[in-house]
Amino acid sequence: MHLGLSMNSAYAVPDVRTGAQWMVERARAASRAELDSLFLGDHHAVPIPYYQNVPMLGRLLAEWRGPVTGALFLLPLWHPLLVAEQVGTLASLAAGRFVLQCAIGPSDDEFPAFGVDPRQRPSRFEQSLTLLRRWFAGEVLDHDGRWTLSRARIAPAPPEPVEVWIGASAAPAIDRAARMGDGWLAGPQLDMASATRQLAYYRERCENHGRPVGVCAIRRDVYVGSSPDEARATAGPVVEAGHRGFPADATIVGSVAEVVDEIRTLENSGYSHVIVRNLVRDQQAAIGCIERLAGVREALAQSH
């Protein structure tokens, strides 16, 4: 089982420098905890400060020296050449492999803000990902589709092969992950029954497309406490208040041993990666949680 961190990027703080500094501190803690991966998300035109993934990840790579670095891109919103160049540059800074997480994105305010028709999301996603893979392989491309390109190329290209994980919850999107991805990233909102059902469907679609089952990753909002009582005192009110509209068993709250047990349940169902997002926003609590993830990672490693 691989254990990574998906960094919170939104911080409702009076001074935007504070949120940026908190992200640096969390990346430093993740590196000290020797987690397996570090990821940033992708959102735009939001009402509170949301630190953009490319410049922020460039800064965080001064702190994070782990084996896997990555970022999520909502591909229909981006020009694919820009994504390819940004990934090539970030991958050249990273100490290890770069993972491109990608998704079509929800049909919300982000698409009108970019002037993109949300009905084009599937075609823009598939064309973009096809182009990205060819650029990563060093090709020079012409293209006439959702974008018109002539003799387009990138440099630097990623120094190692880029793995593509496709985030998906709807059945057509999970099918797309099986058909086009190197892995599937399950959403953090899934209760255990839904997570198991969607994983089975992903495996079925891989078989249908004649492709091997790729990385099976799931995001989870987590708080690892110093003790069972402290964990529930700190994070229990957040869950009880209906955290992000999630069912309670889509989150993980407990001591190191309790969190290990929850993650083993996900592993036993077939997931190979758990990507943790901090459940509690308080900076000191978040740092403490990240530090205790080191104990979770060690316990999971000892079980094999």
Structural write-up:
By secondary structure, this protein is of the alpha/beta class. It is built from ten helices and eleven strands. Helix 9 crosses helix 10.
List keywords for this structure.
10 helices, 304 residues, two-stranded antiparallel ribbon, TIM Barrel, alpha/beta, 20% strand, 44% helix, 8-stranded parallel barrel
Layout of secondary structure:
Elements: E1 2-7, H1 16-32, E2 37-40, H2 53-60, E3 68-74, H3 80-93, E4 97-103, H4 110-114, H5 121-136, E5 141-144, E6 148-152, E7 163-167, H6 171-180, E8 183-186, H7 192-208, E9 215-224, H8 228-240, E10 251-254, H9 256-269, E11 273-278, H10 283-302
Parallel strand pairs: 1-2, 1-11, 2-3, 3-4, 4-7, 7-8, 8-9, 9-10, 9-11
Antiparallel strand pairs: 5-6
Structure described in brief:
The chain is α/β, with parallel strands linked by helices.
Oligomer: single chain
What composes the largest sheet? 8 strands, parallel, barrel
Pairing-aware structural class of the strands and helices? Answer: alpha/beta
Number of strands: 11
Largest sheet strand order: 1-2-3-4-7-8-9-11
Radius of gyration, in angstroms, nearest whole number: 19 Å
What is the CA–CA distance across the termini?
9 Å
Which bin fits the share of residues in helices? 40-55%
CATH superfamily: Luciferase-like domain
- The total number of structural domains is 1
The total count of helices amounts to: 10
Query: According to CATH, what is the class?
Result: Alpha Beta
Helix and strand pattern? EHEHEHEHHEEEHEHEHEHEH
Strand content: 15-25%
- Look at the structure and give the mean pLDDT: 97
CATH architecture level-2 label:
Alpha-Beta Barrel
Q: Provide the low-confidence segments as ranges.
A: none
Shape: globular
